[in-house]
Input
Amino acid sequence: MDNAGYVALTRQSGLLREMRSVAHNIANMSTTGYRREGLVFSEHVQRTGRGEDSLSMASADVRAFGRLQGELTRTGGTFDLAVQGEGYFLVETDEGQALTRAGAFTPNAAGDLVTADGLRVLDAGGAPIFVPPDAADISVAQDGTLSADGRPVAQIGLWRPDSPQDIARREGVLLALSAPPRPVEQPVILQGHLEGSNVDPVAEVTRMIEVQRAYELGQNFLQREDERARTAIRTLGQR
Output
């Protein structure tokens, strides 16, 4: 296979991964705290020798997450928290710490503030947050300070990755970390609200059509290249 064929084949592989990413985005349009995911395409060129054509490969291995704010919905829930602007909640998992924008929390039997999946939410210092079970009034200030009956007991932390390449999709609304996150300097947390998905349905459907057409064009090109190679082999074989 010549250079053009390699480029087309590697691009086809990237387009297939992007189609899966778009399909995943569409499936999570209504998922609380979901962050849209996209792929970044790049081309790698390498010289093969003096007087020879260079070899190039396309790849789509870098995943980027949308930073647009999702729609905020008022729920009135005491432990429903939404991030406004920059930052993620930090949670503790069996595989290490992870980030999420899904703020539907609740205290567990031990009094720890946990996610819907039972993962403990961490404070501004990276420690679990304990909610007094006998507290009659729980309030959360915009800076994340959690108060029980008017007495501050913890500060919910907001964190951000040092680099966009430091996060990757783990499962659902969780983002895995490859490097320690940094605290957000001016966090804004809204109590009694939840943030929806930041997926734009129209944009995702449009992108799905574009990717499908690009994949079909690449497939047609590879078929023509295959026919050209077969024809050349047959012609040379008849001489």
Notes: The longest strand covers residues 55-65. The chain has a mean pLDDT of 87.
